[in-house]
Amino acid sequence: MNIHHISRKTIIVALAIMAIPAAAIAAPAVSGSTSAPRTVATSSASCPKGWGSLPETNSRMTAAPITNVRTGRHACFDRLVVDVRGRSAGYDVRYVTNVTQDGSGFVVPLRGGAKLQIVVRAPAHTLAGQPTYRPANKRELTNVAGFSTFRQVAYGGSFEGQTTIGLGVRARLPFRVFTLAGPGSNTRLVVDVAHHW
Question: Which residues have C-beta within 8 Å of that of residue 128, sequence separation ≥ 6?
Fold first, then answer.
């Protein structure tokens, strides 16, 4: 087609499409997947702001047990999700020199330039002591190969009503922590760690 025959309307529509940020038209990767879904490229200018690297805590304890740990990739951050069977759990999430196992105090080896200790204020077993979360490999709870920020997710154990998870990350990057209701009467604890400052 000869460029001189392109209508003014076609040029305006093409320019409008080019002006839309990629993040606005691209769907984020599915959260909570144990595999590594496709990550959509986006500029850091369109990513959430206001996250920090200081400890995030909530003292609420629950007897509702955790049942799973999942990870997923998004355009601006990597996500870790802890599934809880019932009422939402409190948490203590912070950067530490070493993540240690509950009870024993043994160091949990983690890859990465920084280590996040995630203490979920919920057990990994029922009130009768039956395990509700039994990872196949305590050193690799999920496959984070190819993630931008996550380097390793490891189990630190469950002791005295709370469960510890070690998260090795590329560097001491900003993070956020929050809880979500559902599905049903279940809840989720979410930890997002940004790809960049």
Answer: none
> What is the C-alpha to C-alpha distance for residues 186 and 67, in angstroms, rounded to an integer?
10
Rounded-to-integer distance, Cα 34 and Cα 13, Å: 39
What element of type H or E holds 25?
helix 22-25
Phi, psi angle pair for 116, to nearest 5°: -105, 125
State the virtual CA torsion across 109, 111, 114, 116 in degrees, nearest 10: -60
What predicted TM-score, i.e. pTM, was given to this entire model?
A: 0.78
Identity at 22, one-letter amino acid code: A
**How far is the C-alpha of 166 from the C-alpha of 99, rounded, in Å?**
6
φ, ψ of residue 44 to 5 degrees: the values are -65, -20
DSSP-derived secondary structure letter, 39: P
Q: How many CB atoms lie within 10 A of CB 197?
A: 10
Question: What is the arrangement of strands in the sheet containing 175-181, beginning at the earlier edge strand?
Answer: 66-73, 77-84, 187-194, 175-181
Rounded-to-integer distance, Cα 149 and Cα 146, Å: 9
pLDDT tier at 44, thresholds 50, 70, 90 = low
113-141 per-position pLDDT tens digit: 999 999 999 999 999 999 999 999 999 99
Q: What is the CA radius of gyration of the chain?
A: 20
The CA distance from 50 to 158, in Å, is 32
